[in-house]
Automatic annotation (TrEMBL):
Taxonomic placement: Bacteria, Bacillati, Actinomycetota, Actinomycetes, Streptosporangiales
GO molecular function: S-adenosylmethionine-dependent methyltransferase activity
Domain of life (superkingdom): Bacteria
Keyword list, A-Z: Methyltransferase, S-adenosyl-L-methionine, Transferase
Record-given protein name: Nodulation protein S (NodS)
Length: 227
């Protein structure tokens, strides 16, 4: 990723460090306004065209254990680039994409196209308790650093865990080494076990892909070789 491509990322992350100082009731509306403004032009972060993003998506999918996933959640789906990859990779799964920006979600629906009711998009804030679900596979990428302060990271981590069924997997993807801090509450969550952690260092912007799992309901849900 060249310097020009990094500028939007640096600008919006700096802004969100300041936004996180607001009370919870003020942060959500400001985030919605900001992201709708940022998405005034299609694909502002070049998620659909940048080779780095394509590599990160492939690395993320490669981290997912083989298996049958009936319900998949992508938190922070933006314009649906990765959602479309999920729909292609798991043609039998029901998929829900969540984002705070209605403008981004409009483009996500256009990108994914007609899938009947199999792929749905919801405008919501991850910290909103009204967002509920029961999923086999959950993705959270490039999102937690927007939340800023420690209490909100703790809350977001518990919300991610709450979306998971017994035996479900969670994939968290964030810049390295910042991922150490961002994933700390997931690492410490007694409801989760860490299945794997891959750090991709040989790229302009290193990132970590961390894989977690909730306890299975019974022995038939266990991973091969799992006690």
């Amino acid at each position: 990723m060249d310097v020009a491509a990094r500028v939007p990322d640096l600008v919006h992350r700096t802004l969100f460090r300041a936004v996180s100082l607001l009370a919870s009731g003020g942060q959500g509306p400001l985030l919605r306004t900001y992201f709708d403004w940022w998405h005034r032009n299609p694909d502002p972060w070049r998620l659909a065209t940048d080779h780095y993003e394509a590599h990160k998506y492939k690395t993320t999918l490669d981290a997912v254990p083989e298996g049958r996933y009936e319900r998949i959640l992508e938190v922070g789906c933006s314009e649906g680039v990765f959602t479309k990859l999920l729909a292609d990779a798991y043609p039998d799964a029901g998929i829900v994409g969540v984002d705070i920006s209605s403008r981004a979600l409009g483009r996500a629906r256009e990108r994914v196209g007609d899938t009947g009711s199999r792929v749905r998009f919801i405008q919501a804030d991850i910290l909103n308790p009204g967002l509920r679900g029961d999923f086999d596979l959950v993705f959270c990428a490039e999102l937690l650093y927007y939340l800023g302060r420690t209490p909100r990271l703790r809350h977001a981590s518990s919300r991610l865990t709450a979306f998971m069924r017994p035996g479900a997997h969670l994939v968290a993807v964030h810049p390295w080494p910042e991922a150490t801090r961002l994933h700390a509450f997931l690492d410490a969550d007694p409801a989760l076990s860490t299945v794997g952690n891959h750090v991709e260092r040989n790229v302009d912007r290193p990132f970590a892909v961390s894989l977690y799992r909730t306890a299975p309901r019974d022995a038939s849900d266990r991973e091969p070789g799992e006690a």
